[in-house]
Structures are given as C-alpha cells and as structure tokens.
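Work Package 3 committed the consortium to producing structural models of liganded targets before the mid-term review. Because experimental data for this complex are still outstanding, the team generated a predictive model from sequence and the ligand definition alone, so that downstream docking and mutagenesis planning could proceed in parallel. The input record is reproduced below exactly as it was submitted to the modelling pipeline, together with the SMILES string for zinc ion.
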Amino acid sequence: MVCRGGWGPGREVVRPQVGFVDCGRGDVIDYRRGGGKRAWMRFRARLLALGLLVFVAGPVARAGGQAPNVRIGLVRGIESVSFSGPAGVTMDVLRGEREVATAGPGEVWEVGGERGRARLADPSGERTWSVRRGFRLTPPEGEVVRVYGVEGHWDGVMDRDYRGAIEVRRGGRGRLVVVNVVDVETYLRGVVASEMPTRYPLEALKAQAVAARGQALMKAGRHRREGFDLCSGQHCQVYGGATSEDGRTDAAVSETRGEVLMYNRRLADTLYSSNCGGHTANNEDYWPGQRPVPYLRGRPDFDAEELGVELPLGEEELKQFLKYAPPVNCNQPWYGRSSAIRWWSVAPREEVAEALREEAGDFGELLDVRVTERGESGIAREVMAVGSRRLVRVRGGGAIRRALGGVNSAFVAVEPVKGEGEFPAAFVIWGAGWGHQVGMCQMGAAGLAGRGWDYREVLAKYYPGCEVVRRY
Ligand SMILES: [Zn+2]
Ligand SMILES: [Zn+2]
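The resulting structure, written out as tokens with the ligand in place, is given here.
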C-alpha cells in the first residue's frame, strides 16, 4: 500500500516515520507545528549555521475582429447520445444543411449509429431520420443544447449545456463523435472556469484567460483526424461548456478579449500548471529532447533576496527545501489544496519496483532509487534504479512521475527506508508542487494577484520576454 500526505503552512507538518510501511494513523510521528514562515526561518537559520548554502555561478551542469470558431470534441466512440434544449433545438443534416426537424423545449431526442449511418429519433422513437454523416443541433440565439452523460475531467459523467452548435457525426466503426462548434471566446468561458478555481483573484483569472487563449489557438487542429480541433480534457484544456461558466471567469475572458502572448511576433506556447513547488521548470528539463524555449525558463517563484536563499540549491539543501513549505508565491493554502505545495509518498519497495519495471524494464531486485540528474529548477531529469541485475535510467518528467508510482510532479527527492533484511523496506518520495511546472504557476499567479500584481505583470513573470498582443 502506498501512503501519501501533504501539508501547507498553518497546518501540522506530518512527516512519515522512518520504517513506516503501514498507513495507520499511529505510524505517523513527529508532528511539527508551522511549516510556514517560522519553520522556514528555523530551517534557514540551520542552513546558515551549517554553512550549507552554496554559491554556484553560471549554468548548472548538475543537473479586433471576429473570434475564430473552434471545434471541441466532447465525446468519442459512443453508440448513441441524447440531447435536449431548454428553448428548443433545430436539427440539420451535416453538409447538406437541410433542416430535418425541430425539438420543442425540453424534449429529449436521440442520435444513434447504425450500419454506417447516423439515425435521429424523436422522443417517442416513432419518427426517425437516417443519414450518412450526422446532424447539427442548433439552439436559438443565446441558448444552449443539453447533452446527456458527458464525461468530465473533474466531475465525472453528467448532463452538460453547451453554447454554439453541437455536431453529432459518425466516427469509426459505426460509433459517434459529439463536437461543440463554438467561437474561441465562448469556449474560453468554459475553460477558465474549469482550469482555475473561480474564487481566485480576478487578475489571476485574467492571466489564465490569456494563457488558455494562446493554448487554444496554438493547439487547435491537433485532433483534426478525429474530426475536431481540441479535446475537452486535460490533454488540450479542460472545457466544461456553459455548465461550468461563472460570472468571475466570464469577466476575466471578456476583459482580455482577443489577447494572447507573442514572442518575436509569433504566438507563444503559454503552458501552465497547477503548482510549481517554488520554482518553475525549463521546458527541456521536463521534456528532454525539446529545444529550450526562450520564454519557458525555470524561475524561482519567490523573491530570493526576501527569502534569503542562493540559487540553485545543492542536493542536500534541495532535500530540505522539499521537506518544508517555504513562503513562496504558490504556497497559498487558502487558494487551493495545501498538499499541492509539498507532499510525500511512502511506498513499499516492491511497489516502487513494479512501477519502475513498467517504465524501464526488468532489473532484478530493486536495491536503490536515485535522482541522478536535475534541471536548473531542481526537478528530476533522470532517475536511476539500482537493480541486482542492472541499472536502469528513467528520463523526463512524465516517465519519472509514472516510474515513482504516479506522483504529482517530478520535483522530488527519494530516500530509502532501511528494512530488516539487506534491501530497503520502502522508499519515501518527498515532492513539491503539481503538474509539469513549466510556464505559469497557477497558484503562484493567485498569490501574486492577491498581493496586487495585475495580469500583465503576472504573465511577464512566468513568460519572460513575451508581450501581450490583441489578435482580434
Ligand atoms: Zn486533446
Ligand atoms: Zn509556483
């Protein structure tokens, strides 16, 4: 069993007991008050006393017009889908643009796939229309189409409302694809509210709207072969449709209408993730093999002078940094899960071995796990498993996270826990933040906005060298 935990300031710091393999509450010892500024000051004083702060210079080898429409894939590979409209729905045949029928307000109609055709049926099932491509469902101006049973990223399967038009078209093997055709600005209202808590400060929501707009325009078309531009999950950006809209996020979208970030007159790849753990990562450190992107550089998510640290941190200081929750911009428990800033995971040796084998192949008995290379921000670029038969290396943030059992980020330190026998009994993974940590730190943006930064300043911090340009 893997045990996990986390903390933020103002809460008890729970440290896993050495030798801890059981998840019972009684096995967690050494509760430490704070974890916020006081604990950080104590830690800092200890570091200074021990002369652990190192000065490393140079590069670290150590390691105005119309908003365009977008096509969003909502559901793929289904046999049938039901829909209705609070104000009615008009149904056309795709391509032919021939109107076939009109659903009254609240009537539930269905489209099914059969023998290479799409079949529309009225509520009684008595009247049906069978066509080759599919149907377009359009609500009256300003209204929505309700699609029943759409799987969401955060909130499971539910009935969801969408603005714009819905296309139900035939995909492969007689299955259907449901696509929402909507203008980018309307799409963003359903994205910003899904990708960032709507209670975040308005300037953070505006920074999120600009970043999300850039991602939509840059990634549109990546699902073209499936019949749409973007999916509605985390792969592209989470989109909850009109159901997830909120007045605050709507305002963030409309107040930044058409604005994107440009670098050297080209659209910038405005990646973002939940929590950087205190330092954002270089794109090539998380995705080895990528070319360094000038505006996706790892940056401390704190004022180094204010915090009294010299960057980069050495391996030992880094471990300490990962065990405490320093007062960095994204250490904002009132804006989100306190465990996002710091977390830990204790896993029995055999479970770690299993996950590592799946990622890197067999290596015999697992003897040790080491972070062998770090990026400038401190994230692990390479993790090595020392096996009885051979060494295996795992490179890249995604692979490292999977190899360590699906942990929140690659900003980690791994410590073996001695067992009775010759092998370690378990491994403790100390981690910071959530997500790939490249580009904007969403919780950091909230922290900065909470301190009075406006969205342009927030964007300039996380995407250095980019400028805000209005595209339409
Ligand atoms: Zn996608
Ligand atoms: Zn951060």
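Reviewers should note the following from the model. The two ends are 53 Å apart (CA to CA). These observations will guide the Year 2 experiments.
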